[in-house]
Amino acid sequence: MLVTLSTTHRPASDLGFLLHKHPDRVQCFDVAAGVAHVMYPEADQSRCTAALVLEVDPVELVRSARGTAGEGFSLGQYVNDRPYAASSLLAVTLGKVFATAMKGRCDARPELAATAIPLEIRVPVLPCPGGPDLVRRLFAPLGWAVIATPVELDPAFPEWGVSRYVDLRLAGTLRLAEALSQLYVLLPVLDDAKHYWVSGDEVDKLIRAGGAWLPGHPERELITARYLAHQRGYAAEALARLDALDDRPGEPDEREPDGHDSADRRVPTLAQARRAAILAELASAGATRVVDLGCGEGNLLRELVADRSFTEIVGVDVAARVLRAANRRLRLDELPDQRRVRLLQGSVTYADDRLAGFDAVVLSEVVEHVDPPRLGALAAAVFGTAAPTAVIVTTPNAEYNACWESLPAGRFRHPDHRFEWTRAEFAAWSDGVGAEFGYRVRRVPVGPVDERVGAPTQLAVFTRGA
């Protein structure tokens, strides 16, 4: 089995630091399925490639009882595709050999571990009964450019057609830890055949590896079912835990099963209180043309659309799949004035002239998902290029985390958060941005205020024209 990871991030040889494997050495590791080798076919300043080769002995797997019983007939225990086709055996090996890299740790280059870098991944023989279309459905929503070429049964006899295997090539700009976690989950999903006993521990592994990206994946039910070998009880538990992944520990989901907020709750959730505070600030600013930057699936957009005082509404998100979900949820095709609302694909860290000249830009629970080195680019894009009259930013108050017993000490509220600011840190950032771009700043607590640690959410209103 073979998988290669390449980057052109300069210096490219720093990939060795991220993987904790030196480019000048060939290293071997004993794993459950056999022997794993890590080597670097190329490693210079402009391009670096790491190759993981897993040598599997299918006979030894059966003799040592480390493999499953076979594929329905006794010979299938010995004659199969395990020596060369990527499967759950390779995923397990990735998790062991690159365990530290998958956790996003790199003491030698911590800033690089937190940075999205250009990556290319190749799996030359990947079993996929669903064909290339399934591969694209699983990887494309995660930001990858996908090329899945069917492998011919025999190039000498093209009339025989293609096999159930594909030659997979991925290209994208992600953190290495994200890429590894996605491979760890999706390789066995595509194979759809776990090569070891599936127990309740596998649910924990799925949540740890996929918690940052799986909750919003359009194929999460299929991924969950296949990863857990179609065991309904485990799949139901995993889906319930994925639903609970939110930025509000210990609070109920803000949506009812039909996707709408409950009108019966007497005490609003923090998300509802946050949206109410944003709407109040927009009304106070007299904003009628609003951009929701990092709109997600449209929680705030839905309330903006319902208020006719907002005459032009734009939702922006980097993920096309999220925008499709927002479009379905808002039923934009059914709106009487479809020109009033637009959904655009874009990034919070790139200047976008389409967003210039609006009354207000909202960044609700967005900045904490941005790598700290990119915050300067975010500020330049929003306050410099877009330059609205008002900007509203909300973000978690890290000090308040101690009030949630369900949140372990030192943990962030969401696995994709890059940081969480204290009140002093948020004040320093917002005051600095305001001074740099000519905005007055006012900060407002959102949610129940604790005398010691403040409110759970911090809100800042930036008004242009200091």
UniProtKB/TrEMBL annotation:
Specify the Methyltransferase type domain's residue ranges: 291-379
Enumerate the residue ranges of region (Disordered): 246-266
Identify the SUPFAM superfamilies for this entry: S-adenosyl-L-methionine-dependent methyltransferases
BP-aspect Gene Ontology terms: regulatory ncRNA-mediated gene silencing; RNA methylation
Q: What class of enzyme is it?
A: transferase
The organism's place on the tree of life at top rank: Bacteria
Q: What reaction(s) does this enzyme catalyze?
A: small RNA 3'-end nucleotide + S-adenosyl-L-methionine = small RNA 3'-end 2'-O-methylnucleotide + S-adenosyl-L-homocysteine + H(+)
Q: Name one Pfam family in it.
A: Hen1_L
Q: Tell whether Membrane is among the UniProt keywords.
A: no
* Span of domain Hen1 N-terminal: 1-242
The name under which this protein is listed is: Small RNA 2'-O-methyltransferase
Q: Which organism is it from?
A: Actinophytocola xinjiangensis
